[in-house]
């Protein structure tokens, strides 16, 4: 179960990273929270 949670977290972080590259201004508040 913990492995699945880790994979989901990594996937979300990856998406945030890509999203941050696409639009810096919108993502920054969320980006700093993680």
What's a concise summary of this model?
This protein is mainly α and 34 residues long. Helices cover 91% and strands 0% of the residues. The protein is elongated and about 35 Å long.
Which helices and strands occur, and which strands form pairs?
Layout: H1 2-22, H2 24-33
Helix pairs in contact: 1-2
Strand content: under 5%
Specify the biggest β-sheet: none
> Distance between termini?
21 Å
Q: What is the overall silhouette? A: elongated
Uncertain regions: pLDDT < 50 for 5+ in a row?
none
Number of beta strands: 0
Structural class call reads mainly alpha
Order of helices and strands: HH
Our count of helices gives: 2
* Helix share, percent: over 70%
* Total discrete domains: 1
The averaged pLDDT comes out at 76
**Radius of gyration over C-alpha positions, nearest whole angstrom:** 11 Å
What does this structure look like?
This protein is mostly helical. The chain has one domain. It is 91% helix and 0% strand. It has two helices and no strands. Helix 1 runs antiparallel to helix 2. The longest helix is centred in the middle third of the chain and has 21 residues. The radius of gyration is 11 Å and the shape is elongated. The two termini are 21 Å apart. The model has no long low-confidence stretch (mean pLDDT 76).
């Amino acid at each position: 179960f913990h492995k699945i949670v880790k994979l989901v977290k990594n996937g979300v972080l990856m998406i945030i990273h890509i999203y941050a590259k696409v639009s810096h201004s919108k993502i920054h508040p969320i980006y700093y929270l993680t």
